[in-house]
Structures are given as C-alpha cells and as structure tokens.
C-alpha cells in the first residue's frame, strides 16, 4: 500500500502567526508574513512541499473583508488528498482566550463529516509573564486549557509557544524553533484521514453568532468558578488527559504535550 501524503494544515485568524510558524518549520520564507493593519497577509490557500510534507497556509475567517474567499480557501485545503495534521492557532490577549479563534475552530470542524476529527491547538506568541505563569501548571493554566475546550470540539493536544524576539513585527521572518514544538508537530500531534467527499462548505453566515455565544461562555467560565468546575468535570469524562485538570499539584498536560512544553521553560527564562 502506498504511503499517504502528509498534509500539515495551519488554520487561524489574522495575527495568529500561521505563516511565520510555517516559515520557521521550513527554515525559509515559504509564505509571506509580517504586520498588516486591518486584516491578514494571507489571502488565498497556499501550499509548499518541504522534506516530503505538504505545508498548507490559509486565510482567517475572522477577516470580514475576505470571509467568503477565506471559507473557499479552507474548503479547498481540506479537500486535498492524504493524511492531515490539523493545527489551529489561538491567541491570548491580556491572558484571555479569543472567542473568534474558537469560533473559527467550530466553523471549520463543522464542515468535516467524519467521526473523531483529531486536531491540535497551538497557543502562539504568549507574552513572557503570562507564559511563565502558565508553565507553573497552576489554576491559571487549568483555566486556559478548560476555556480552550469550552467549544463543542475538544482536544488534549495543546502546545504553547512564548514570544520569540527575533520574530516580533518582522516581515517574512523565520528562526530555529525549540526542539519541543518541532517534536510536537512532527511526532506527537495526531493525524486524520479526511475523504474529499466528506467536506462541506463552511457556513460563515453563522460565524458572528457563534463568536458571540463563545464570548459569553468564556466570560462565564472566567467569572464563575462553579461553571468552570462543571466544565472541568465534563472534560474529565471525555479524555484521560483532563482527569488531573483540577489537581494543581499534578501536571495538567498529557505526556505528549509535556514533552513539548518542557523546553519552553528554558526559553522563557532567557526572553
């Protein structure tokens, strides 16, 4: 049986760092990246092969000026043949998970008509103090992990990347990534085969409503400990990964994710 093509698909809204991360993984300016006001630099579905792997970059659904175009680009990316590793890029602003990033995850995964679509979340460009706090694996960390999993789709495959000075506000930048994140993407992130016929068109007309619902849900989890604990309880029934989520003396991450995050502790100390 021939080996299936591996597609590494990066999804996320403008400013989440998709293109820059791909450039770092390939060690070259594979895709245009940098700062743009009022939207994202990525306007279409783009792909490049590097070391036998197809890297896919897509525009963000939250960019209202190209929302239909972005939806078509993401649909096209999901209809390529092969095995997928799906990475959703998520931001923290002021330590808060962005509701529009979770809305993008829901909108995309709603189109995949197969059981058990495995995916990963990469929380990118985490500020130094926030990152140091999260790496203590205490209540703040448990809250962020729970909020990321407050949407209808859940995953134990979550990695955090701290701010890297060489990449800040630089055009077409790339640098050598910590071995942990490379390990996560290459070896630990789950993959899934998605038949071409199983992909429906993205219904971006619901995006604004979904984003508002998720924003309200995030606000509740941030301010109501009882609601947060209820959500943790539901997660513990879904994945073994989440069973220690409320026990702050025990590492919150699954073993695979812990392997990824450990090297970042060293990075945070030197940023």
From TrEMBL:
The chain crosses the membrane at residues 245-268. The keyword Membrane applies. GO terms for molecular function: GTP binding. InterPro entries: GTP-bd, P-loop_NTPase. Residues 10-98 form the G domain. The keyword Coiled coil applies. Pfam families: MMR_HSR1 (PF01926). Residues 204-238 form a coiled coil. SUPFAM superfamilies: P-loop containing nucleoside triphosphate hydrolases. Keywords: Coiled coil, Membrane, Transmembrane, Transmembrane helix. This is G domain-containing protein. It comes from Phytophthora cactorum.
């Amino acid at each position: 049986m021939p080996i299936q093509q591996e597609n590494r698909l990066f999804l996320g809204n403008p400013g989440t760092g998709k293109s820059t991360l791909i450039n770092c993984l390939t060690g070259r300016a594979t895709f245009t990246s940098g700062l743009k006001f009022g939207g994202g630099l990525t306007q279409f579905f783009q792909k490049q092969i590097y070391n036998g792997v197809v890297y896919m970059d897509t525009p963000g659904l939250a960019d209202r000026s190209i929302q239909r175009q972005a939806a078509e680009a993401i649909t096209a990316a999901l209809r390529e043949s092969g095995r997928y590793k799906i990475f959703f890029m998520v931001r923290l602003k002021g330590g808060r998970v962005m509701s529009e990033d979770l809305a993008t995850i829901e909108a995309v995964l709603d189109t995949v008509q197969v059981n058990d679509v495995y995916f990963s979340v990469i929380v990118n460009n985490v500020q130094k103090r926030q990152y140091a706090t999260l790496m203590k694996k205490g209540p703040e960390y448990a809250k962020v992990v729970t909020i990321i999993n407050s949407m209808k789709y859940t995953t134990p495959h979550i990695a955090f990347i701290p701010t890297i000075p060489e990449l800040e506000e630089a055009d077409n930048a790339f640098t050598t990534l910590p071995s942990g994140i490379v390990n996560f993407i290459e070896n630990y992130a789950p993959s899934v085969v998605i038949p071409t016929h199983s992909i429906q068109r993205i219904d971006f007309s619901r995006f604004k409503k979904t984003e508002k619902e998720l924003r309200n849900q995030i606000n509740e989890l941030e301010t109501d400990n009882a609601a947060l604990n209820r959500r943790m309880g539901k997660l513990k029934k879904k994945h073994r990964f989440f069973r220690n989520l409320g026990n702050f003396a025990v590492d919150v991450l699954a073993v695979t994710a812990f392997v990824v995050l450990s090297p970042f502790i060293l990075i945070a100390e030197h940023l």
